[in-house]
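Sequence in, structure out. Go.
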Amino acid sequence: MCGIVGYVGPKQAFPILMKGLYRLEYRGYDSAGIALIDGDLKLYKTKGKVSDLENFVKDKDTTGTIGIAHTRWATHGEPNNTNAHPHYSQSKNLAIIHNGIIENYASIKEELMKRGYHFESDTDTEVLIHLIEDIRNNEKVSLDEAVRIALNQVVGAYAIVVISKEDPDMLVAARKGSPLVIGIGDDDFYLASDATPIAEYTHDVVYLDEEEVVCVRKNRKIKIKTITNKDKTAYVQKLEMNLGQLEKGGYDHFMLKEIYEQPHSILDSMRGRVNAKKGIVKLGGISDYEQKMANADRIIIVACGTSWHAGLVGEYLFEDLARVPVEVEYASEFRYRNPIITEDDIVIAISQSGETADTLAAIELAKSKGATIIGICNVVGSSIARATHAGTYTHAGPEIGVASTKAFTAQVTILTLMALRIAHMKGTIEKSRFHRILNELEAIPEKVKETLKVDNQLKELARVFTYTRNFLYLGRGYNFPVALEGALKLKEISYIHAEGYPAAEMKHGPIALIDKEMPVVVIATNKGTYDKVMSNIQEVKARKGKIIAIVTKGDKDVKKLADYVIEVPETEELLVPLLATIPLQLLSYHIAVMRDCNVDQPRNLAKSVTVE
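Output:
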């Protein structure tokens, strides 16, 4: 959560920092601020949006070639002008921006207050900048050394950038449990929470590792140390992102753009990994561990939110194709319940951002028990990509909309490839079925394009249900996770209560909710448990519920019962989630737009959840 931007170089920092904050808006936030040095250390911040900050500083002095900027998502202290970042040190010679949580801030604050320090905010961040200044003054050390020493005294997660009026050509930054990337220009440096603010200026980046402190100066080489004072060599990587991916491209919202990008994102996730003619599935990122995956006693999938729903599809895939037991765990629960993990277990960690705090903690727990960790994430160089033994990138491209769309289908695509690869190695899938699925996989991008043609139909349907207060989503088998994901999308962006349920479980409780006011979305494609789902639809109709059915093209039986029918192309049962999810995304999107909700930045949500 939150966004960090920093700049030092020959250019004016303000426009770079403001553009960076706008690029990071998708991460979720409630206030914004900026600090600049041009002789004095100037600090401006306000509750609200980046646009509010821009309006606030219109008549202020924003000159300076070095600065830091921040968007805050409140943890310690309510969202207001005082608690917004940056925060001054007591002397106002230093300022800091911070993502994460300092868990032992209260004890540090108490000690600093005894030494005469005063605090203006309720944040843990202000405690940290006072501690850094206290160390710098009392131990007579450089700023980067004071930061390093201070971080040895704190417990928690952080990505920080510190700026000093007394050293106006330098930024000091550090990270633990929260991402930070440094862009290297010709004679300048860019710092950010992720690469989106940097891509416009340079493609040479360094991803800071855990417990590393970096010092960047104008016209100097980058300098990195660990908090234990070990020198590190900066590993420069090429950024795989272009500016066009960060723009809306004519769409009204990033979410709609990303829904429409799914034919390409699914194809890109398969590109070079599938050859149906030759009967090949190849995932280079896991090649050294695929035999261990094939021999695994059990696969544990850990994830949060939408990625957890993708993991549920993965459970069906691995058990169906590879015949290996699978458990799907919420990462936030897994890490706290003393799970039984052995060296023969494979743990698959799924995260769009690659920075999800609970998933990272689950990885560390599983690693400590000797398990092999396989990652599936979308962001190259992210924390999860570095923490896992091996893994596969989804290649979905940047996903700006907070409500995940193309990341879900890309994750399901990768899980399908993994399950097929392991099944083929183990001989648990018939050759004819293996080839049939591969051929269907290669056809999926075009079938997603066809599915997107229902957009106008769903826009009209959304008008009917704009002011509905509750929704029920039902699915069975592979479509049960799709029902969960559809309900989540509606909740996230339209603020309508929605519940996803296994269709057969409806009569064990939720059926009590059904009346003529209750819309029920049923995924009723013509594979697997089709006849059983038909019975569930009849149960809803008997209680006057409104049925919105997702059916296979050409279906006649469900059409006789449903109030509204949305068709998707026919495909293999295990690939239906890649198609059936699309109409549910579009339905949520159009309802949210008609309710005048902030589609790309829903209230209270953040894209990259880097705190517990």
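Check: Residues 3-244 form a domain with the Glutamine Phosphoribosylpyrophosphate, subunit 1, domain 1 fold (CATH 3.60.20.10). The mean pLDDT is 91.
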